[in-house]
Amino acid sequence: MNTLRLILGDQLNSQHSWFTETNENVTYCLFEMRQETDYVKHHIQKVIGFFAAMRSFAEELKSQGHNVIYFKINDESNTQSLVDNLSKLIKDYAIECFEYQLPDEYRLDQQLSEFCNSLDIETNTYDSEHFYTSRYELKDFFEGKKTYLMENFYRNMRKKHEVLMEGKQPEGGQWNYDKSNRKKWKGKPEIPHYKWFINDVSDIVSDIEKADIKTIGHFKTETFSYPINRSQALEQLNYFCEHLLIRFGDYQDAMHTDQVYLFHSRISFVMNIKLIGPKEVIGAVIDYYYDHKTEIDISQVEGFVRQIIGWREYMRGMYWALMPDYKTENHLKNTNKLPEFFWTGNTKMNCLKQSIINSLDNAYAHHIQRLMITGNYALLTQIDPDEVDAWYLGIYADAIEWVQLTNTRGMSQFADGGKIATKPYVSSGSYIDKMSNYCEKCHYNKKEKTTDKACPFNSLYWNFLDDKRDILGNNRRMGMMYSLLDKMDKGQLNSIKERATAIIENPDEY
Ligand code: FAD
Ligand code: SF4
């Protein structure tokens, strides 16, 4: 039967069972489309990365003998709409059967299922064969439970997939080494140089310019440094195992003005577009650990495993368990606008300046910058979660809605009322000072609360707790903070609130 198979831009999984043999009756199609470049304003490096990886994947399939139709962004036959492109190919090639892999995004899932309902030819869907868990596995796991605790899910994943287990017990005797994953980096130990790839993307850059796609962020060279094909992705993974894993856990939460990546893997982009899968990432890390057990401590490895089989699978499961309502949740009723400096880095607050410039320059920030700097500030200043989502969804190369939304709206902004995080991730300047060197060269004083030079986080923090008392006051995990707030001198609280209000009203002046 003459069959058309769609490959979405984040479904570049060459290990998928679709590709085990060639079939002259099967044609694969991939489209660069305005539908995808324009639903939010993306970082220029994100668009480059997707197009580069898609083009490379299409070439790889062709070289293996598969039939491939590829629409570049400026091709005349490209309608720029998924449904219109598919309809056109179905007609032009007299297609008798249409097939696709289940998308990870709700938006595309809806669009494709509606499209299939409108067709009068056979249609079939396939799993993307990427994740450990199926779409609704987490939902079933938590069925009937009051909370969706990540730790419970994670332990079950460790047992089920026999990762770092000794029989029924966790290897090393502990499930979680989170507490030993909180070291500040002070210039030592030395961080190995980053693994850069030299991918010539000049043709893609000129295609993006010609199409006049509106983007954010910077791209300063002709070459693109993220991996864009499977062999580069595997190289990146091996580099992580050989050079970075040994300290990953220790410095997972550390931040530093001279270091963008520290000991992080930089692997999210290639995993999210499925050039490599989580099972092979975990397999490589565990094998390397067992071969180097005398050098690498279990806490480094467990810290990494938790991110992949814990957080990553959990976020995806939560997305499918809670969409579509999740996308509009705003439990804390936040309505402020995102400050202009989120798009420029033009602020006197050094922690924000560093994290935002980092994001604009590299389409990357590591987890703690996303959570405890930009996310923390957005929550303390009570920004509308729609605005926060749009920023996070656009700016990071790895941002795809299933993982961005749950992290941003849920974990970072507490807009889901605690389904993902049991309490809001907020802090004053002292946490930022504890984990980074940002405060050392900041215009503001990390210890002061109400003077002109006082760190804005210090007043924003107490003001947030006070403003949200009606909603958060009964949260048991916030009890200690509220009792400190209750003991605060009323005059001091008033001064704190006055300063916080001034910052919230004119954020770009600080
Ligand atoms: P490492 O620190 O080396 O971690 C290894 C891998 O673990 C990552 O590549 C990632 O696949 C996985 N991982 C770690 N933490 C998480 C998490 N919380 N959720 C899901 N996977 C995780 N990650 C994305 O992939 N896309 C996003 O759009 C995204 N948005 C985020 C927004 C906010 C507000 C926050 C707080 C976190 C977000 N994350 C997102 C999670 C995390 O910050 C990134 O996965 C990580 O920084 C990617 O860099 P890395 O590959 O060097 O990660
Ligand atoms: Fe950020 Fe405050 Fe430290 Fe400045 S003093 S870097 S604003 S936490």
UniProtKB/TrEMBL annotation:
One Pfam family here: DPRP
Name of this chain's protein: Cryptochrome/photolyase family protein
Top-level taxonomy: Bacteria, Pseudomonadati, Bacteroidota, Flavobacteriia, Flavobacteriales
Entry superkingdom: Bacteria
